[in-house]
Fold this sequence. Notes:
disordered N terminus; 4 strands; Gyrase A, domain 2
Amino acid sequence: MSTDDPLMTWAPAACTLPTAERPLREAEFDELFGTSSAGVERPDPTHLRIALDPTPEVAARAAALAVRETRCCSFFTFAVVASAGQVRLDVTVTDAQVDVLDALQRRAGEAA
Length: 112
């Protein structure tokens, strides 16, 4: 879901980030995806792979965002992978949180 209303966000209800902070965090993901995403794959229902621009700055920004996100949403596991001149963000969740990953995929796909 995309909207201009700051009270209406795309993060699912399972997100435990305080409501007032969600638009800011979502904007961080939107900025990362909008400026650095090179493609989105879904290897399986609990795994999302986002190709990113292969620069140290993008890798560092993705890693910092992942660390902040796991503080409030422990159901995410993030891995920033740099290999063969490529950088990707792998995101996994448990079966119970697939809807959260679906929302993240929709947002990343809109930006890619």
